[in-house]
Amino acid sequence: MSVGAIAAGRSRRLAKRRTVIGALVVAVIGMYAVTLMVGQTFYSPGDVARVIAGQTVPGASFTVGELRLPRATLAILTGIAFALGGATFQTMLRNPLASPDIIGISHGASAAAVFAITVLTVSGAAVSFVAIVASLATAMAIYVLSFRDGVVGTRLILIGIGIAAMLQSVVSYLLIRASTWDLQVAMRWITGSINGASWSLALPLVCAVVVLGGILLAHSRQLELLQLGDESASALGVRVERTRLVVIVAAVGLIAFATAAAGPIAFVAFLSGPIAARLVGPTGSVLVPAALVGALLVLTADLLGQFAFGTRYPVGVITGVLGAPYLVYLLIRTNRAGGSL
Amino acid sequence: MTDAHTLHTEQLSLGYGDRVVVDSLDLTIPTGRITTIVGANACGKSTLLRAMARLLAPRNGRVVLDGKDLHRLPTKEVARTLGLLPQSPIAPEGIAVADLVGRGRHPHQKVFARWSREDEAAVLSALEATGTTELADRSVDELSGGQRQRVWIAMALAQQTDLLLLDEPTTFLDVTHQIEVLDLLTDLNRQRGTTIVMVLHDLNLAARYADHLIAVAGGALHAAGSPADVLTAATVREVFGLESEVVADPTSGKPMMLPIGRYHARQVQPATATATEASG
């Protein structure tokens, strides 16, 4: 065999990856366009394009420009943020169950936000700030609690699931004593919804996706090497502890900002990575395809939630329905294989 | 291999938590030779290898690579000189052999650099050296234990380091594959001049394949030197607490240890038996 033959095999595998990524990009753009056109009133692609170009189109300028555009954009951003955060954790801990929405990090944000709304009676940006700080604190607590001569994936997952359950009961308690008005606002922090989308909500998330997402992509090769185990990664020149710290902070930050903007949209972080991995195969980093899958998931689920049924459901209800069976499947599969988690 | 790299330890002390595992160890790894480290379970031999691979920071003393403190050198620079095959590396699900071997190129790649012709050539040469070229497009999951171990060695080879450390590279392999792996490592040493340091469980294989044999007991150096000097009945007794006969292996002439258990031994004095065998 020659250098050429090895290279041919590699480019064959990469070609599949490029095709899938290309198809996902097309699908995201297509779904984005559909979301902008479809609704109570249908607007033609021409109208939508004119609104985006900044022209005034009666009716469409408000509906598309002020309602649908921020909503669809927020859907893409939250999808990317949740997916990148989730796929990072899953890759690093080599376990699909290690997603931030399973191991309590999203729950930390929810509990803190509900606490801020119902007890501290604050609103708006203050709630988001509290949620972001709380998810970082939750992540740190889980890390510290599961640290014993290094962090083992399984221990971290089990401790995380415990913390998630605890935080969930905190949320339930707070909701029981909440006033009716607060309850409405607080609900968004439990199911996840982009109903209240606006440009002011999307802006912090844009920054988070660019900066923190950029950090994660810059570390994607190190992340791939961490999959070989800490010892191999270190022998291949990865500064294991430093990489892990940077990557965890960036991933938790993304989850926190996304949660602050849209609530914990169920299972997007958990589903995107495995779906992307299944689609592109094991060659190359899963981060970019996962981000695209995440964006597509949230866009599609939000569209379905709004128009597919008699009642309008928040996006989190739809992703929850999609994600729960997968969680059950994963648990059954690991159980059949005779392994622990 | 252009410049010869040197590795030694100075007053090296290692431990986990409150437990001291290795105490004030001075050790020199001969350049361009095969060194094997033997010792009883929990004697500190794997810990020592981990410290030499920079995975464990010393309590005291230091590991010295080319005259510099190993733990103060940049990680990537170390990774271009010193490779490691841990005892149980993890292969990502479904990864192709060529892709896994390609990961060995990381220390040579710049942050956003693309995959180069040079990387490809290094991967091919690693696959050829380990006889895994035909497996290049296969998934690592499908391989047998022996094939998989050769692929891991190929990954370490793609790293193109002059020093290669291996932690029990023959564990979980049947005898044929054990010999295959050890022959492969000897090829590397003889053909490329790679300095090889490995921890081995099997004393006889360690003695046969080593140029330099190190016996560790209780976290201290017990004996180091040529296998003929180190592997003696006295060493086996002191290091492993086992009575044995050491004879010349009829195939290689290297020392071979035959344990004397409580059963199955002929009623002869171990000392006389050794003398007879050695003279014959």
Overall shape of chain B: it is globular
Strand content of chain A: under 5%
**Radius of gyration of chain B (Å):** 20 Å
Q: Multimeric state of these chains?
A: heterodimer
Tally of separate domains of chain A: 1
Poorly predicted residue ranges of chain A: none
* CATH superfamily descriptor of chain B: P-loop containing nucleotide triphosphate hydrolases
Mean pLDDT of chain B comes to: 89
Q: How far is the first residue's CA from the last residue's CA of chain B?
A: 42 Å
**Helix-and-strand structural type of chain B:** alpha/beta
From the spread of the alpha carbons, the general shape of chain A counts as globular
End-to-end span of chain A in angstroms?
A: 41 Å
Radius of gyration of chain A: 21 Å
At CATH level 2, the architecture of chain A is Orthogonal Bundle
- Biggest sheet statistics of chain B: 6 strands, mixed
> Can you tell me the CATH superfamily of chain A?
ABC transporter involved in vitamin B12 uptake, BtuC
What fraction of the residues of chain B are assigned to beta strands by DSSP? 25-35%
CATH class of chain A: Mainly Alpha
Mean of residue pLDDT of chain A? 88
Q: Which blocks of ≥5 consecutive residues of chain B have pLDDT under 50? A: 275-280
Organism (chain B): Aeromicrobium piscarium
GO molecular function (chain B): ATP binding; ATP hydrolysis activity
GO biological process, one term (chain B): iron ion transport
Protein name (chain B): ABC transporter ATP-binding protein
